[in-house]
Amino acid sequence: MNVATVRYILDCIGELFPDAHCELNHSNAFELTIAVLLSAQCTDETVNKVTKDLFQKYRSPQDYVSVPLEELEQDIRRIGLYRNKAKHIHHLCLLLMERYGGEVPKEHDQLIQLPGVGRKTANVVVSNAFGVPAIAVDTHVERVSKRLGLAGWKDSVLEVEKKLMKKVPRDEWTLTHHRLIFFGRYHCKAQNPKCQVCPLLDVCREGKKRMKTSLIRQDKKHTG
């Protein structure tokens, strides 16, 4: 894919979602880390409902480790995989206190060593909390990138991230990450993408296939 096509894609998505941003409610790096950890296989909407009370009760790593694990589990019970996530949060907070004085480290390499924090979570934290350009590849970013040909169909999440980093200007990484999420969440959905009204239909492999299939069905319906 040439530079002009990439620019065209980025500009179109930018026009659709100029104000794309992180939708996880948080007021500092620590809360963001907890929120992203909770968001695995869970919607941001559900996470925000849970953290509304959670962040009032727990203000610091010390607060999380001072209660029984069972109590924390109940506090996040509405979140999928809540038992595992409660364990991760507990261990993460212990490590923050032991190694980093209770503060979330700013270095990506240090973040990914924390329990429950993978590459995606680390990218979200460094970009949103510390202003370091990064592209976090979640299900929306992966789906949109592959449909638009920014990445290959069989690419791993890491391969998708690397290809986006090569094609997107570094100073646009974080904003592009948010815009791709919004585009995938509200427009190019997994089940019912808005292909009929999509400004990127001419460069979208998935969209062209879906529209072709739709036309064939309509022809069969009319001729049948």
From TrEMBL:
Top-tier EC class: lyase
Domain of life of the organism encoding this protein: Bacteria
Span of domain HhH-GPD: 38-186
Co-factor: note: Binds 1 [4Fe-4S] cluster.
Keywords: 4Fe-4S, DNA damage, DNA repair, DNA-binding, Endonuclease, Glycosidase, Hydrolase, Iron, Iron-sulfur, Lyase, Metal-binding, Nuclease
Binding site for [4Fe-4S] cluster: 188, 195, 198, 204
One GO BP annotation of this record: base-excision repair, AP site formation
Named cofactor requirement(s): [4Fe-4S] cluster
A molecular function GO annotation: DNA binding
EC number, UniProt record: 4.2.99.18
Segments traversing the membrane: none
Reactions listed under catalytic activity: 2'-deoxyribonucleotide-(2'-deoxyribose 5'-phosphate)-2'-deoxyribonucleotide-DNA = a 3'-end 2'-deoxyribonucleotide-(2,3-dehydro-2,3-deoxyribose 5'-phosphate)-DNA + a 5'-end 5'-phospho-2'-deoxyribonucleoside-DNA + H(+)
SMART domains in alphabetical order: ENDO3c, FES
Cited function: DNA repair enzyme that has both DNA N-glycosylase activity and AP-lyase activity. The DNA N-glycosylase activity releases various damaged pyrimidines from DNA by cleaving the N-glycosidic bond, leaving an AP (apurinic/apyrimidinic) site. The AP-lyase activity cleaves the phosphodiester bond 3' to the AP site by a beta-elimination, leaving a 3'-terminal unsaturated sugar and a product with a terminal 5'-phosphate.
Family under the similarity heading: Belongs to the Nth/MutY family.
Protein name, as recorded: Endonuclease III
Species whose genome carries this gene: Paenibacillus pini JCM 16418
Gene: nth
